[in-house]
Structure formats: structure tokens, C-alpha cells
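Bug #77: duplicate submission created two jobs. Keeping one. Sequence:
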Amino acid sequence: MMEWLERNVPKMVLAPSFVAIMIFVYGFIAWTAWISFTKSRLMPKYDLDGIGQYNRLFAAPRWDVAMNNLFIFGGLFIVISMIIGLALAIFLDQKIRAEGVLRTIYLYPMALSLIVTGTAWKWILNPGLGIQETVRGWGFESFTFDWIIRPEMAIYTIVLAAVWQASGFVMALFLAGLRSVDGEIIRAAQVDGIPTHRIYSAIIIPTMAPIFLSAFIVLAHLAIKAFDLVIALTGGGPGYATDLPATYMYAMAFSRGDLGQAASSAMIMMMVIFAIVVPYLYSELRPRRDQ
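Kept job's structure:
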């Protein structure tokens, strides 16, 4: 009896979670995929209609804006966050006195929810309340910083807020990587008279390639799923100038009553995520030749 319990109790404990995941994750992914091939509008329909919803999706001007914004936002967000995070990590790696305080300050934005971040930056960027009004109050009457109300510039306000929140997290990743480098290698390079900037650029940073890849995967995943920050900061506006795929999907599902378009956009988002994550998993899980 004891042997049977030892063998089966773990399975019994894990079974409810396994069943819930299969139903509420993979089951609903399959349901969404099915709906994306039907004529569903306000209510779901289950008769297959081929790729009609995808044709409508790729012909929609709003979807084009959302995808263009994703490339702009994702590219700038990832690159700037990694540059700032690396710079902050190198700065803190110099064993400065106030490292603990500065590290806490840099990491603090990550502790805030995206809704709080979006709301705070909405006030900061509001031309009548924030930076523009403050600088004009100092006497610079011609100063203008109204990106948040300009359709061609509003997407960059989302980049600003997202970088502010994520760069501290990237800094923590890179700082851990810098601290894991063998100190003997660094000391040997210093004895040979190699300048500090060359030690970082030629020795330390190249050894951190896996950390760069991990940071890229995490940031890309956040960029593709970005929703809360956009809703809190711009609401997708002006108009739909700051729409991203996630906000487009939400609008189609809950504002326009178009389940088919919401489902097809969700599947495209999932494919984009797979296109990023699957090669990473393959590179990490494949057998190493030197093992």
C-alpha cells in the first residue's frame, strides 16, 4: 500500500493542475484557432470558412498600423533597454559605495504595475500638466513637448515609458552576468595593461552572449504582448495611432464584437512569439557537440 501511495500520490496531486492547463490553456488556444477559420462575428460560429478572417485582417488598415507600431515599439524598446541596462550594469560593477541604494532605485520601476506606469507617464507627458507646462513655467514659452497628442509621435511615448520600466530589470540580468565572470581573467588582463574599456568590450561582454539572448527573448515577449501600458497611457490613440496587436485584438473582441478578427489577430501574435521562442528553445535544448 505504501509503495502504491508513493508511486501514485504525486500523479494525483499534479493531475488537477495538468487537466486545468490542458483545458484552459491549450484547449482555448485550439478553440481560438478554430474560431479564426470561421465567419464568427458577435457570437461564435463553428462552420469553417477557410482563411477569410485572415484575408480581412491583412486588408485592414488598422492592423497595418498595429503591426508597424509593433516593429517600431519592439525594436526601439529592446535596443534602448539593453543599451541602458548594460550601461547601468557596467556602472554598478565598478564597486561604487552606494551600489545598494542605486540598484534599488534602478529596479524600483519594475515593481510598479504597467497601469501605474502608464498613468504616471500620461500625467508627465500631458502638455497642460507635465514636462511642457513645467518648462514653460520656467520662462521657456516656446518649448514644446506634445508627442502624446501627435499621431505620428505618440508611439514613441510608449517606448519612453516601457524603457523606463524595463531597463532596471535588464540591468539586473547583465549585472549578474558581469559578476559571474571569472575574476582571474580580469586580473590577468589588468596585469597585461589592457584598458578597462577593452576588458569589457573584448573579454567580458562577449562571454555574456547567453544573457543577451535571454534579455532579448524576455523583452521581445513583453513587446509583443504589450497591452496594459498602451491602454493606460494613450488608450490606443490619438485615433488608433498607437494600436498594437494586443490592443487591436481587444478592440475587435470587446468593442467591435468581431470574434473572428480577434481570434485571427491572436493567432498571428502567437505565431510571432513562436518565431522568436522556438529557435531559442532549439538552441538551448539541442545536444552540444562538445558534451
